[in-house]
Design a protein that fits this description.
By secondary structure, this protein is an alpha+beta fold. It contains four helices and five strands; from the N terminus they run ααααβββββ. A hairpin with a 4-residue loop joins strand 3 and strand 4.
């Protein structure tokens, strides 16, 4: 399930990159085993402080449920991230059925911390912000 969530997350980011600019899209680097373990990310924006942020973000996602998105946002905020920088996807699909996982992101400068919470272990990676300035694709729930 963790691999499925990571693949869906990566596919969403790649597709968003294709739709957001008329030029060729740069590929989004896949999460390395070091990323998944909380180690240094491959993204150039990653620094010692950035790695701490990714670890704090990942830790906030652990144990959360896609059926409790308000608790998920509160956990990310409690981890030290500004509420105004948080985006998340809906907890129900267009037919009103619960989703398998919720994506959540925090905008940090020119990049984003993007995570996925569902059944099993939460995932978190660094990614470039989209051309729109957002971190996530699709219908995003406004966190205010």
């Amino acid at each position: 399930m963790r691999q499925l969530a990571a693949v869906v997350l990566l596919a969403s980011l790649v597709l968003a990159g294709c739709a957001s600019s008329p030029g060729p899209a740069e590929p989004v680097p896949a999460a390395s085993p070091a990323d998944e373990a909380g180690g240094a990310a491959d993204a150039p924006a990653a620094s010692a402080a950035g790695d701490e942020a990714l670890a704090a973000f990942r830790s906030a996602l652990e144990g959360q449920s896609p059926t409790a998105p308000d608790a998920l946002v509160a956990a990310v905020e409690a981890a030290g991230f500004e509420r105004s920088a948080i985006e998340r996807t809906r907890e129900v699909d267009s037919l009103g059925a619960p989703v398998t996982f919720v994506q959540i992101a925090v905008r940090e400068g020119d990049g984003c911390l993007v995570g996925s919470v569902g059944e099993g272990e939460a995932t978190a990676v660094r990614a470039s912000a989209l051309g729109s300035g957002r971190c996530l694709v699709g219908e995003i729930v406004t966190v205010d």
